[in-house]
Amino acid sequence: MKKIAAFWAMLCAMVVSVFAQNYTVQSVSGRVQKESGAARVDVNAGDILSADTVIITGIGSSLILKEGDRTFTVPAAKNGKVAELVTSAGVRIGGNVARSDTSAITRTTGQVSTASARASDAAQDEDIAAE
Asked: What are phi and psi of 52, to 5 degrees?
């Protein structure tokens, strides 16, 4: 019975280690820290981070992680668990802007007068003299 329990424990440990994602730190620029209990510890190249590790990247810093064949760049001022940051690191927002025609034919250039412009268009200013 003890052999069966030991076998199942070893099998479960192997399955967990296969499915647990570990990320190797390729490079660090600037100040990057990880939470370790109640303290923050600096992250260095070569460190291995689990998916549940909470990291904090400072302003102007970045972190490059590698997991298997994939490489992830975590930009500056990002905080959170490694698993969340690497999934959002690959998302890019943007697109192509089509060139628009701004020729004189398609533009309207109507003149809009304002109150100050209309006041200065008066034919002649009259001085009112006290009599």
From this structure: -90, 0
Nearest to 56 by CA among 79, 76, 39, 87: 79
Q: How many domains does the structure of the chain reveal?
A: 1
Cα separation, 34 vs 42, in Å, equals: 6
State pLDDT tens for residues 76-109: 888 899 888 887 644 444 455 555 555 555 555 5
Q: pTM of this prediction?
A: 0.52
Identify the CA nearest to 77 among candidates 123, 46, 31.
31
Helix (H) or strand (E) run with residue 1 in it = none
Whether 46 is covered by a domain: the verdict is: yes
> Which amino acid, residue 40?
R
